[in-house]
Write a structure and sequence with these properties.
alpha/beta; seven-stranded mixed β-sheet; 9 strands; globular
C-alpha cells in the first residue's frame, strides 16, 4: 500500500517555499558555503556531469522533469529544438522563466506523479529528482519516463551521492533511512524523501525494469546515468549496463 501521499505533499510544499534560496545550495553559498577548496572540487564534478551530458549530443524534442530554477534548463534550451520543462512548483517555474528567457521552452506546472506527456521526446532529463522518488513509486516513475520517450530515445539523470558535507552546515545530519529533515533559511523544517543510490545498485534495479545503459559517479558528489529502453547500441551510447 502506498502511504507516500502526505510525504509528497510536504516535499512539494518544501520546494515551493525554498524556491528563492534553492540556488544557494548549488552555488555553495550562505549556509552551504564550506570554503573555496570545497567549492572548486564541487564545480569540477559539476563540469564532469556537463561534459557527459553534452557528449551524448542530445537534440530534438527534449523533456526536463522537475526542472527547478533553471540550472540545467539553460543548457538544454541551447541545444534543443523544443524543450518542455515540468515542475510542481509555480515559484521555481517563475524563476526558471526569468533565468532562461527562451521562446522555445514550454513550461508546465504539474505534479509528476499525476502528469502524463501529450507527446513523446527524443531525450528526457532530470536533475536531483530520482532521489526524491519514494521507493514504492520507483517503477511507476520509470514507466512515465518510458512513455515520454520516442523509439531510440534516451534518458539522462544526475543526482547526489551520499556525502554529509553537501547539506547546509546547520542541517540535521543526513542518513540512509530514505527520509531527511530539511531546514529553510527562516528556520522552518520539512521532512522529505531522499534516497542515496550507489551506481551498481541503481544499474541492477534499472536493468530489472528493462533499461539499458550506464550509471557512473564523478567521485565525491554526484552520480549520473544514461539509459534507454532500446537494446541496440547507438553512437555515443553503449547499450550496456556497467559501461
Amino acid at each position: 500500500m502506498d502511504n507516500s501521499n502526505a510525504l509528497i505533499d510536504e516535499m512539494i510544499a518544501y520546494y515551493r517555499a525554498r524556491a528563492s534560496e534553492y540556488d544557494q545550495w548549488f552555488l555553495r553559498q550562505g549556509r552551504y558555503d564550506r570554503g573555496e577548496r570545497f567549492r572548486q572540487s564541487w564545480f569540477r564534478e559539476v563540469a564532469a556531469v556537463e561534459r557527459a551530458l553534452l557528449a551524448l549530443g542530445p537534440h530534438g524534442d527534449i523533456l526536463e522533469l522537475a526542472c527547478g530554477t533553471g540550472i540545467w534548463t539553460r543548457q538544454l534550451a541551447a541545444i534543443a529544438t523544443s524543450l518542455t520543462a515540468v515542475d510542481a512548483s509555480p515559484e521555481v517555474i517563475t524563476l526558471n522563466r526569468q533565468q532562461v528567457d527562451s521562446s522555445h521552452v514550454e513550461y508546465i506546472v504539474a505534479d509528476l506523479y499525476e502528469w502524463r506527456p501529450a507527446i513523446t521526446y527524443d531525450f528526457v532529463f532530470f536533475g536531483f529528482w530520482l532521489s526524491h522518488v519514494p521507493p514504492e513509486r520507483f517503477e511507476a516513475f520509470w514507466e512515465l519516463v518510458a512513455q515520454a520517450l520516442k523509439p531510440n530515445g534516451r534518458a539522462f539523470f544526475v543526482d547526489s551521492l551520499f556525502n554529509r558535507e553537501t547539506s547546509a552546515k546547520d542541517q540535521s545530519e543526513i542518513n540512509r533511512s530514505g527520509r531527511v529533515e530539511r531546514r529553510l533559511n527562516d528556520g522552518r523544517t520539512f521532512e522529505i524523501v531522499k534516497i542515496f543510490y550507489e551506481p551498481e545498485q541503481l544499474e541492477e534495479r534499472l536493468s530489472s525494469l528493462g533499461w539499458q545503459g550506464y550509471v557512473r559517479t564523478t567521485g565525491k558528489f554526484f552520480l549520473y546515468g544514461c539509459v534507454s529502453h532500446e537494446v541496440e547500441a547507438r553512437d555515443g551510447f553503449t547499450g550496456e549496463l556497467g559501461a
